[in-house]
Please model this.
Amino acid sequence: MVPLSAYVAVSAVLFVTGLIGVLIRRNFIIVLMAIEIMLNAANVNLVAFSHYLESMTGQIVALFVIAIAAGEAAVGLAIIIVVFRGKISTNVDEINLLKW
Amino acid sequence: MVPVFFSYFSLVSILAGVLTVALPNPVHCGLALLTLLLHVAGLFLLLNAEFLFVIQIIVYAGAIVVLYLFVLMLLNLKTDERVLHHRYAVILVAAAAICGGLLLMALRSPFQGAKGHAPVEAVLQDGGSYAIGITIFNEYLLQFEIVGVFLLGAIIGAIVLAKTPTAVDVEPE
Model:
């Protein structure tokens, strides 16, 4: 029997990996991929608690998280295409038109 | 048998996550992300969440990763010369400290709470998908509809953003 702490530990490591990716990578698409890693870490946590606390709510919230992630990927990639069309770069440091 | 599969799925998913963040070529990052998603789906299977297992494979591995790879191929990206933030060493140390703190908290906590009303035997009687369906359409119907409206908005937004801009016809004075 795998303890709940093991799932929570895996989820924490995955989340921090995604966080590092968002902070240190400068490619817009890879930043979006790192966000997907963080959402997956949250999903592992939700499903693990749903299983060990014998409740269905965690799985349903994880389902909503997957739907939100799909929408986020679609809109984020459309934004990348628009930015790339005007200015040949996907480096997030160079996308600073709205920076105050 | 379950601890063996758990260690395999968790180790490979963490490794694939690190590769997704670390590899220089964006297409290789996409393939590492695909590996991560499939192994997280395996973790869902170990937790008796077979509906989420299927949804993870169809929606994430089947649709989202394909979308990412499509855009990568379409943009024909070169590997950036400067792929990393200029102060990434500081960030790595801070992140390692955060990770250590989280692991300390996770491994020391007993995680006790009130049990819900879906014990394993009751769920297995009709299957996990049945239990999810009953719960989602009884207690979470409003949230389900909100997600539907959100997805419609996301589709329309993506189409409007990615459409090729056409020259506006200006009426001659």
